[in-house]
Amino acid sequence: MKGRLPAAVLCIGCLGFLMVFPAKDAAFAQVNSEGEITLGENNRVTEPKEPTNPAKPRPGDSYHRPTNEKGPLSLDVVPLGFYFGTQKMYHAAHTYQANGTDNHLQYLQVTDNRDATVNGWSLKVRQADYLRDSQTDYELTGATLYLPQGQPRNQNNLAGSAANADSLLTASVPVTDQEVTIFSAPNRENAGKATSTNFWQANDVTLSIPRDTVQPGNYSTKIYWILTDGGPSN
Q1: Secondary structure (H, E, C), the chain
Q2: Considering the domain boundaries, does residue 185 fall inside one?
Q3: Which of 35, 62, 64, 156 is the most buried (most CB within 10 A)?
Q4: Domain containing 121: what range?
Q5: In a domain, 24, yes or no
Q6: What is the domain count for the chain?
Q7: Does residue 134 lie within any of the structural domains?
Q8: pTM higher than 0.90, yes or no?
Q9: Would 11 be classed as within a structural domain?
């Protein structure tokens, strides 16, 4: 009995020693700081972006026209024009292909930095009139410019893929004196936000002239691009 007592006393002393210290990670004080930001409309001009990956900037080129329009909803870039060069006349109906080298892309660029609860936009196109010779005032009545269905991209896509751009809508359209939608984002959450592009090969643009219409001349017209808020409902 006398030999076991010191051991028991020693253990009780160790337990008392351990209980003196507070638990690990115990809080001695808690205070707070603040984080604050005020957000307003982004009315800056959006510079041209790479059409296949609009997360990247694009140097200016001679094939496109930066519009310098301010946001928060803006049309930033349009093609400078559609050029067919000098061609032979046909009194039968004939379709001409626009000039353009291989992998010569034309594109449209739209930026939407509006409130997250405001969704949808539509980009439309029309021409002033039929192609006309300014010297003779002769008009190629019925001649129609056709723009191909492009490929959409969005700034939020990874590596410029089309995976997250499937909500954007593109269409192949005839360009007449009536507005027609070529590029749009539906009235859906997050659709068409940030910067979106729609691109195609330049030589996929065509001009169809009806039979018994042509006579020699230098013909031109103006193309107008109209961006409006509100997109397709479905």
Answers
A1: CCCCHHHHHHHHHHHHHHCCCCCCCCCCCCCCCCCCCCCCCCCCECCCEECCEEEEECCCCCCEEECCCECCEEEEEEECCCCCCCCCCCCCCEEEECCCCCCCEEEEEEEECCCCCCCCEEEEEEECCCCEECCCCCECCCCEEEECCCEEEECCCHHHCCCCCCCCEECCEEECCCCEEEEEECCCCCCCCEEEEEEEEHHHCEEEECCCCCCCCCEECCEEEEEEECCCCC
A2: yes
A3: 64
A4: 62-229
A5: no
A6: 1
A7: yes
A8: no
A9: no
